[in-house]
Amino acid sequence: MRAAPLALAMVAAWSSPVYSSSLASFALDKVLADATPIFGSYVKETGNKAEWMKKYNDDTLLIHMNIPGTHDSATWNYSQATQDSLVGITDLNQTFRCQELSWIDMLNMGIRAFDLRYAFDPTNTTIIFYHSEALLSEIATLDDVLFGFYKWLDDHPSETLFLSLQYEGSTAKYASNDAALQLKLYNTLTSPVARNYFVQKKSELGTLGEARGKITLMRRFDLDQLASSYTTEMPGLHFSPTLWTDNDPNIALTYNERKNLTAYIEDYYQPTTPAGSNATVNIQWKYNATANHIVKATTEYPDSLFWTWASSENTDNVPPVWPRIMAIGNGTLTPKGGVNQRLVPVLKKQKGKRVGIVMFDYFDVPSDLIDEFLSL
């Protein structure tokens, strides 16, 4: 039986380069639309902060670069309305938020390192994003937002990104870090598309030239439910959660045993201040740890990775000190501002020096914070 003329026309259309290009564009638009609650609405910008790595030579070592990043990057769109709509999936009585601008804004404003906290959705089939028990979106998946990063890198081939992926242990009622989740994550990060966009170098950082247009995986998860071959095939740097000490201002974590490569990390996320300490005291304690680590990065171990987390909270305090207050202060109650404001003069003193990767809450406040960072 011969095919009908309409069927033949459809086959011809599907096989034509023009139609295939249109279909690919439509499919990408659909994925980017699904990613919007986490990634934001895609906007292409060029020049200035969107392409700040252009000024560096290809042979620049990544461990010698200054990389601004954001902590709990996906929380920017989380609100009380989001929390209320998810009652029954995640039982919360507080709002988790550490950012206020979308990922596309972060990218175009110079941010190059992202902290992503993932787990299965409540059906245990799709990888989505959380902060503690806060489910940040039921729509945007890890696959969706990765395509957002891929698209952005295609538009900005001079740049490179760092993605810190961490399993979020206190998640939805029925989520678990079992073999199914780990296999799903492995398949996503080693798919043919991902292999084109993730730097395939393992357990060490190379040059900017090797990493332009690509992503370095900062793997804060184990694949302990899978065969050892899965771990062997995973690219990037491995920071096992079993070795990342909790709430520590001075972590030394070896990520390459053969070459004895060690990362020096400050992750003092909850100051151990006396009970009832006010916000100013909590901010001061966190600022001290962060500033000391930034200065240490400029003076010690020049060929080692330094990774500083300027983010913090102290919700155990009475009254609680939320991430926003710690980062940018609370008006007249904290006259010197938060950690971010206090770090600006510290950064001004480090011109020409390496400070490494620094992760911020509310990175856009004050407005000159990232400007100072990128001018080092």
Report on the structure:
The chain is of the alpha/beta class and 376 residues long. It has one domain: Alpha-Beta Barrel (TIM Barrel), CATH 3.20.20.190. It has 13 helices and 11 strands. The chain has helices at 5-15, 17-39, 80-85, 103-108, 142-155, 179-189, 192-197, 208-211, 228-233, 279-299, 323-328, 339-348, 369-374, and strands at residues 67-70, 113-120, 127-131, 134-135, 161-167, 215-220, 237-238, 248-256, 261-267, 305-309, 357-360. Strands 1, 2, 3, 4, 5, 6, 7, 8, 9, 10 and 11 form an 11-stranded mixed sheet that branches. A hairpin with a 4-residue loop joins strand 8 and strand 9.
Topology readout:
Layout: H1 5-15, H2 17-39, E1 67-70, H3 80-85, H4 103-108, E2 113-120, E3 127-131, E4 134-135, H5 142-155, E5 161-167, H6 179-189, H7 192-197, H8 208-211, E6 215-220, H9 228-233, E7 237-238, E8 248-256, E9 261-267, H10 279-299, E10 305-309, H11 323-328, H12 339-348, E11 357-360, H13 369-374
Parallel strand pairs: 1-2, 1-11, 2-5, 5-6, 6-7, 9-10, 10-11
Antiparallel strand pairs: 2-3, 3-4, 8-9
Helix pairs in contact: 2-5, 10-12
Question: What attributes does this structure have?
Answer:
35% helix; TIM Barrel; 376 residues; 11 strands; 13 helices; 11-stranded mixed beta sheet
Structural class: alpha/beta
Radius of gyration: 22 Å
The CATH homologous superfamily: Phosphatidylinositol (PI) phosphodiesterase
Number of domains: 1
Number of strands: 11
Which CATH class is shown? Alpha Beta
Helical content class: 25-40%
